[in-house]
Amino acid sequence: MTNPDGLIISVRELTKITDQIYIGTYSSAQMLDFTNRVGITHVLNCTPDEHAGLKGFNVRQLNINDGFEIPAEAIRFALVSIATAIHNHGRILVHCHAGVSRSVSIVCAHLMYAGFSWDEAVDFVRSRRPQAFPHPNIERSIKNFFGKNINSRTTMLGD
Description:
Blueprint: E1 14-16, E2 21-24, H1 26-30, E3 42-45, E4 58-61, H2 72-87, E5 92-95, H3 102-113, H4 118-128, H5 136-146
Parallel strand pairs: 2-5, 3-4, 3-5
Antiparallel strand pairs: 1-2
Helix pairs in contact: 2-3, 3-4, 3-5
């Protein structure tokens, strides 16, 4: 993929997780106005920074910062945003700045809603996006949302 300046966009910036869910970086989302080879229709921006463009996309803004716990209402908002895109036969790009923690965690929350455990969800995402590394505080938020205990296998915080 290239951006308007002819620079190559790293494949690592946009990763297919399922047929309808992609994880990416802030810059991969910004580039959708110029190139959308995978047919993204919806964007869930998991940063406080709004997009200047993205005309013609269903963009949802989830104002969360990395390293901090996420309120239950924000997790619910994210789950509904992803479910809406899927229900409408769209493809959603869930992104944060680096596509490593916040976006990965939100996609893992969606997978948990679909029946995965936290560990299964992280393993599934990481098998496609090896740089995935959810922050322990975000992990705690999602596990609390689903009524799960923190597992020391995936976080340094323990129980």
